[in-house]
Amino acid sequence: MHKKLSRRLLTGGLVGLAAAGLILLATYGLQRTLFDAFEAKSLDWRYLKRIKLLWEQRQGAAIEDIIIVDIDNRSLEKLGRFSQWPRTYHSHIIDYITEGGARAIGFDVLFMEPDSNPANDSSFIHATQKSGIVYHAMSFSMANPDAFLYPMEAPPEGLDAKRLSAEMTPAISRIFKTADRMDGKLIALYHAARGIGFANFSPDNDSVIRTMPLFLNFTGRQYFSLSLAMVMGSMDAGPQDVTVVPNQEVIVRDPKGKSLHIPINEKGRMLINYQGTFQTFRYISYYDVLMQRIPKELFDGKFVLVGTSAAGLSDIRPVPFQDAFPGVEIHANLIYNLLTQSYITVQKPASVWLLVIFFSVLIALVAMAFRPWLSGLLGVLISGGLAWLALTWFSRNAFWLELVRPTLAILFSFLFAFIYRYVEEERSKRYIKNMFQHYLTATVVDELLKRPDMLKLGGDRRIATAFFSDIKDFTTVSEKLEPEELVAQLNEYLTAMTEVVLHYDGYLDKYEGDAIMAVFGVPVDQTDHARRGCLAALEMQKRLIALRAKWQAEDKPVFYARMGLNSGAMIAGNVGGVDRFDYTVIGDSVNLASRLEGANKQYGTSIMISEFTKEFLIDEFILRELDLIRVKGKQKPVRVYELICEKRSQLSNSQLLSLPEYEKGLAAYRAKQWDTAIAAFQRALAADAHDGPSRTYIQRCEFYKKNPVPWNWDGVFEMKTK
User: Distance between CA atoms of 466 and 451, rounded to whole angstroms?
Assistant: First the structure.
């Protein structure tokens, strides 16, 4: 059993590894984009709980460190269409917020063209330069030859690219996306600013914004995102203070030696750690600031972003937990992540591989070791536990534990294991059917196919009844026939006997020449195995009577068969070599049945059963006790009986007269009253001239009269031969 379990576990491990290999190949090689998209969707689901938990921790309060001056619908109602606003509005906003002591002011508004009134631009540029803490957004785009927008070979004329961008090595710059064009012509505004940064987002394939590129390539240089430019400016860090470690992190060092570490993926993007839904950060209406209805001291030490939540101004984006989310608040989340160093920790690919392999092997082992319903239940519990762990770790610790690949590993491991088990069970059923279809009835074979666990290969202790039969004086009979005639008549005999065995759902173990070995109670358990064996033996004798009549009519020799049955414990299973073996039974109980078959010749009987078989029988058969014998090779005596017939059958008149006299004779024999016993046995023979046991006992009594038994004789007859 341990060997079988070890083999199943080894197979389960191999099945699990195969499933893991397929999952890793499919999700990292063949369809990585597809599976990454599913994983991203699972992250969106986890955000729902995380955002709720963060909101509870803040007790519903907005984050005040970053203030969004919102060009909202109210501002548009008060001030008119945004495109018609004079840029002096923005100048007033800059002056007021700067006077309030803000750390940085970022305009998430694209000023692409000069104003129709140059004085307005001059005021705006002057306010930007005077403040010294203003950062302006710009954008990049791809070329569109159909619109005559071709790739630019150099930055816009007059742009101080060295101050406003970095220059990295080709090995590093290639991880960032490259743009063909820089949009915007208000170069003087860029120069007046403390810094500039692109406002371009890079949504995933489903248009959801989960990451933000920190750099974009343009004409051989790398430009900063707006959020990174603002944080770097607040640190007094310049382009020369940036170090990029591909697929790991961006490091920004200020003049005082303080470092800012920003994790990035293989595309140079930062995963955004969103802090909440719309208006998680403090929103103030642009109109209220312009009208100075808000105390300027409110901006002291704060990062201020000027942007819009108005849908009409086309800066509303889908994010993991919300379909409509202001782009300016995405920048606010990014700045907050950078300032607080609060990032989402992504599981390393190597640990994902190990997790996939672990769950694949674990689930395959479970599926191979347990019943389908139990392994299915365990699989659901394991999958649910994994989902709960992934949800909890993300919501509490901002740790992104991969969920899709391990879940697929669990699913496919189950699938592979069940397919293997199905194929193996079908193969096992074919094996069982091929092994037993000639030795068992179709009903018993079908039962084995339904319950193959009843057939334990390699040996199992069973309680059953063994049956042996042999043709009396077969050697003498065979000498009277030609080989072909002998084989034909023997096959006719064996066919009839086999039909009886199978009729009573016995297992035909083997033929040995003219001998038959059968077992009742294996391989399928039968509580009435002894009864079945006895009924089969009686039916065989009846069939043999009919065959003898047929053979006599055909002028052929006739067969007489002796049969022995014994019930008890025996080992049932496959016995033989590694490559060739047979299902059989072995053990002392089997050997005793064989001895009883041979012992019939001592008593002139046809069917002999042991006391052990008798114990399994109900009061359904007519038996007569034959003797207490000690078979060759055994010390303990066994009480044996002749199986005469079923009680529902009618005894012949000779048997009705003979059997009572036999019982009297047996009692006198055991009392060592030899003459009394002989007289009783003679009366039995007078009633039934064919009564073999009476004849045997007369001879034995005559012998004991001449050769007295010891005083302590126990009545046991010693069998000298097998």
Answer: 22
> By percentage, how much of the chain surpasses pLDDT 70?
91
Query: In whole angstroms, what is the distance from residue 566 CA to residue 584 CA?
Result: 16
Query: What does the alpha-carbon distance between residue 591 and residue 564 come to, in Å, rounded to a whole number?
Result: 10
Pairing relation of β-strands 195-198 and 134-141? parallel
Pairing outcome for strands 621-630 and 716-718: parallel
For residues 186 and 125, give the distance between their C-alpha atoms in angstroms, rounded to a whole number. Answer: 10
Domains of the chain: 2-34+347-432 (no CATH), 64-144+152-240+267-341 (no CATH), 441-649 (3.30.70.1230), 652-722 (no CATH)
Query: Does the pLDDT at position 207 exceed 80?
Result: yes
Taking CA 101 as the corner, what is the angle to CA 97 and CA 105, rounded to the nearest 5 degrees? 50
Give the H/E segment covering residue 508: strand 507-512
Measuring CA to CA, which residue among 48, 111, 108, 93 is closest to residue 299? 93
Q: What is the dihedral of CA 496, 502, 508, 513, to 10 degrees?
A: 0
Beta bridge partners of 262: 250
Average pLDDT value over all residues in the chain: 88
Sign, CA dihedral 499-500-506-507, equals negative
DSSP string, 348-412: PHHHHHHHHHHHHHHHHHHHHHS-HHHHHHHHHHHHHHHHHHHHHHHHHH-EE---HHHHHHHHH
Element (H, E) at 608: strand 607-610
pLDDT in tens, 661-716: 999 999 999 999 999 999 999 999 999 999 999 999 999 999 999 999 998 898 89
CA-CA distance, 596 to 566, in Å (whole number)? 8
Q: Would you place residue 646 in the very low, low, confident or very high pLDDT band (cuts 50, 70, 90)?
A: very high
* pLDDT score at 439: 47
* 183 strand-pairing partners: 139
* Six-digit token string for 448: 């084995």
pTM of the model: 0.64
What digits encode the pLDDT tens for the residues 386-429? 889 888 888 999 988 888 778 877 777 777 777 776 776 656 66
Burial of 91 per CB tally in 10 Å (0-12, 13-18, 19+) = buried
d(CA 237, CA 168): 16
Bridging pattern class, strands 195-198 and 249-253? unpaired
SS3 604: coil
Q: In the Cβ-directed half-sphere of 544, how many Cα atoms lie within 13 Å? A: 23
pLDDT of amino acid 434: 57
| CB-CB contact of 654 with 688 (8 Å) | yes
Distance CA 192, CA 134 (A): 9
Residue holding tokens 């899709």?
A: 404
* N-to-C CA span, the chain: 35
User: Alpha helices of 26-117 — where are they, by DSSP H?
Assistant: 32-57, 73-79, 88-99
